[in-house]
Amino acid sequence: MGRRKLWDQKWFKWLRADRHDNTSTSDPTSEPWNNISKRCSDETYSSLKPMRPWVVGQAVNGNDGEEFDVTLNTSAIPYPLGIFSLEPASASGFTPLQINYSDPIFFHLDNVTGTWPKKWVVVPENYTSTDWVYLILTGTGKKTTYGAHPIHLHGHDFAILQQVEEAPYSPEKLNLKRNNPPRRDVVLLPQDGFVVIAFKADNPGTWLTHCHVAYHASFGLAMQILERQADANRIWNASEFVLG
């Protein structure tokens, strides 16, 4: 008997047993759960209390950090599959992330010009290992996020300082929790709301920040945090990489 057939039989046997009638061959039925929200939401913020307490310092990148907006554009410009972007609020135009995997940013850590190809969506964060970087994530024009987006930051766990559903971001709405905030490496950007996260700049490198819905990321909903570039280049030494 093949492994697949054996597995199918075990699965069907388990399914019948789970229905409390192992002789039935009819299709199973189910009933909806009561009092279970169907909203795409994170765990209630107030219920998330780290067992290992920590305190987040003040933002080094502005009074309350930098704002980054999710944008949707279905015009097929600048390229057909690029319909989402995650960019600084100050950015002009529409730039979904596009990476050339044969020529990643790691090959260019010795670039001292401070300029990068626009489609790489590079966000330099050149501070010290004790500094805290704040990111305010919201929707384009502070109005809509085009759904909820689980945002993942590589290279760090981070503090969730505030998370608000269905309320457009504005600075006067900030009420940041710095004393023992939730610790995560993925946070839900709520639909039509905003979230503020913070990480300590203690891990030099280039760290992808992206939506964890795979096709949103492939559509361009991502950016690259370039953390302490000079220190990263001392660790990996871009001049030693051989291109081609």
Question: Which characteristics define this entry?
Answer:
five-stranded mixed beta sheet; globular; alpha+beta; 244 residues; six-stranded mixed beta sheet
What's the topology here?
Layout: H1 3-18, E1 66-72, E2 84-88, E3 122-125, E4 132-139, E5 149-153, E6 158-164, E7 183-184, E8 186-189, E9 194-200, E10 205-211, H2 214-218, E11 222-227, H3 229-236
Please give the share of residues in helix: 10-25%
* Multimeric state: single chain
Which class do the helix and strand fractions yield?
A: alpha+beta
What's the number of helices?
A: 3
Shape: globular
Give a quick account of the main beta sheet: strands, pairing sense, barrel closure. Answer: 6 strands, mixed
Termini separation: 50 Å
What integer value in Å does the Rg equal? 22 Å
Chain-averaged pLDDT: 88
Would you list the SSEs in sequence order as H and E?
A: HEEEEEEEEEEHEH
Sheet-strand content, in percent, reads 25-35%
Low-confidence segments, given as residue ranges, are none
Across the major sheet, the strand order is 2-1-4-9-6-7
**Count of DSSP strands:** 11
